[in-house]
Amino acid sequence: MSLLIKNGTVVTAVDQYVGDVLIEGERIATIGSSLSMPVDRTIDASGKLVLPGGIDVHTHLDMPFGGTTSADDFESGTIAAAFGGTTSIVDFAIQYKGQTLHHAWETWMHKAEGKAAIDYGFHMIITDLTDQVELEMDALVGQGVTSFKLFMAYPGVFMLDDASIFKALLRTGKNGGTICMHAENGGVIDVLVKKALAEGKTAPKYHALTRPVRAEAEATHRAIALAEMADVPIYIVHLSAAEALEMVTEARDRGLPAYAETCPQYLFLSDDNYEEPGFDGAKYVMSPPLRPAATQDRLWRGLAFNDLQAISTDHCPFCMKEQKSMGHGDFSKIPNGAPGIETRMSLVYDGGVRTGRISLNRFVELTSTSPAKIFGLFPRKGTIAPGSDADIVIFDPEKTTTLSVHSLHMKVDYNPYEGRQVTGVTETVISRGRVVIDNGRFVGRAGAGAFIKRSARW
Ligand code: URP
Ligand code: ZN
Ligand code: ZN
Ligand code: ZN
Q: Which residues form the Amidohydrolase-related domain (predicted)?
């Protein structure tokens, strides 16, 4: 199968030019101008952007959490991702206490196999760090699972103590893996949650009020300090608070390899959403929670100046009707998370590039190139270059759409951005040389996505 994309504006993290991209099989073969050769299909991309496929390094598909399971599985979730211009995800496999990492990896490989419509990798969530598990970390890095998520929150479920965190960090200094940290002080939050419930404060908004910004900032600072003592890089996931960003900025100013991502929900929504009528605040119950609206400018500045290196989604959808409703009368029983895998590229293009907050190159860098580099996918993915996987998005920068649960493809009964107009829409998507979205229609296949073996830091 060969494919020629003609006359589009090719954008990478560093370039922008009108050109033609020739795809042969799964790879990009040639980039040039006025290319003309016999091919199976030619796509005219005049007036369109030709972007590296989006890479979302933070998704939770088919994830058991809070007594239920996230509403998108690897089929519906990856199809929705493709509609939104994302061609690779890195999801999370969970080691439950007493289990091996191998078992967790195998379990999540089975969840994805035959279902994923785009390529996928896994981070490994470690909840029980024994000597045996440390050995398994080395083995997993060799098998392409080169990053590990640790939690400083959710005591009794996911939370690790500082000694275990430090040991895991040290281990990545030896095996070349990367630690991703959920940085919130779980002990403090637990006390605040119990106190609020005892006082009869049960509404969704108390989820946010019991997770103060300082609990995130303290944990972010501690995570970076532990990584500094272990002399290894660290990646802070779903950073939401300006106070936490200050910790990352301070560390980076000292030259430390501290990295962080934020997510669209923290750029476009705010704690005002918890005031929506009735139980609707539950739509936004996620951890960390939405922050004051003034935070958004601080995060955009962090993205522009490279104190934040990636925008991922933390896609973790739960339906209002059967799932979020478990927390009626007790906010702590509302499953944490929100949908976002499909809306990331349009939201960030519209709210970031069109407003001048970030450049078009920075948009590509934040949504594709930089996560690919941090997580061992580059240069196979994350750019448009000869030899790279043909993961390409043809994006219409002028088309406007209204985000709505009625037209989006995520398997969840609400959308946090309902009614929001965005300009900048994914039109056609190519995943390893195969067209999966053709002018807004899904033409891919569940199971066509492949497990991506990622590289270690060396
Ligand atoms: O609320 C969230 N973020 N749910 C997903 C789990 C996590 O901590 O990332
Ligand atoms: Zn096995
Ligand atoms: Zn987390
Ligand atoms: Zn998450």
A: 49-436
Ligand 1 atom closest to the CA of 154, numbered from 1:
8
Q: Which ligand is nearest to the CA of 265?
A: 1
For a mutational test of ligand 1's pocket, the pick from 238, 263, 283, i.e. the residue with the most ligand atoms closer than 8 A to its C-beta, is 238
| 286 in any annotated domain | yes
CA–CA gap between residue 382 and residue 45 (Å, rounded): 20
Q: Are residue 9 and residue 108 in the same domain, yes or no?
A: no
ipTM: 0.94
| Burial category of 367 from C-beta neighbours within 10 Å (exposed 0-12, middle 13-18, buried 19 and up) | buried
Give the 3-state secondary structure of residue 50: strand
Split into its structural domains, the chain has a count of 2
Identify whether residues 45 and 62 lie together within a single domain.
no
238 CA from centroid of ligand 3 (Å)? 7
Tokens 């965190």 label which residue? 165
Ligand 1 cavity residues, CB under 6 Å: 60, 182, 238, 286-287, 314, 316, 336-337
Measure the CA–CA gap between 379 and 370, rounded to whole angstroms: 11
Residue 267 within a domain: yes
Count, residues in the chain: 458
State the distance from the centre of ligand 4 to the C-alpha of 92, rounded, in angstroms: 8
**What predicted TM-score, i.e. pTM, was given to this entire model?**
0.98
**Residues 6+ positions from 399 with CB-CB distance below 8 Å:** 423, 424, 425, 427
Check residue 458 and give its pLDDT: 86
Residue identifier of the C-alpha nearest atom 3 of ligand 1: 287
**Are both 115 and 231 inside the same structural domain?**
yes
User: Which pair of structure tokens corresponds to residue 455?
Assistant: 């590289």
Q: 148 pLDDT band (50/70/90 cuts)?
A: very high
- 180 assigned to some structural domain: yes
Query: Residue 169 has what pLDDT?
Result: 98
Give the domain range for residue 416: 2-51+386-442
User: Do 151 and 26 have their domain in common?
Assistant: no
pLDDT digits (tens, 9 = 90+) for 361-383: 999 999 999 999 999 999 999 99
The verdict on 211 and 243 lying in the same domain is yes
Of ligand 1's listed atoms, the one at least distance from the Cα of 158 is: 8
Residue whose CB lies within 8 A of the most ligand 1 atoms, among 316, 333, 412, for a mutation test: 316
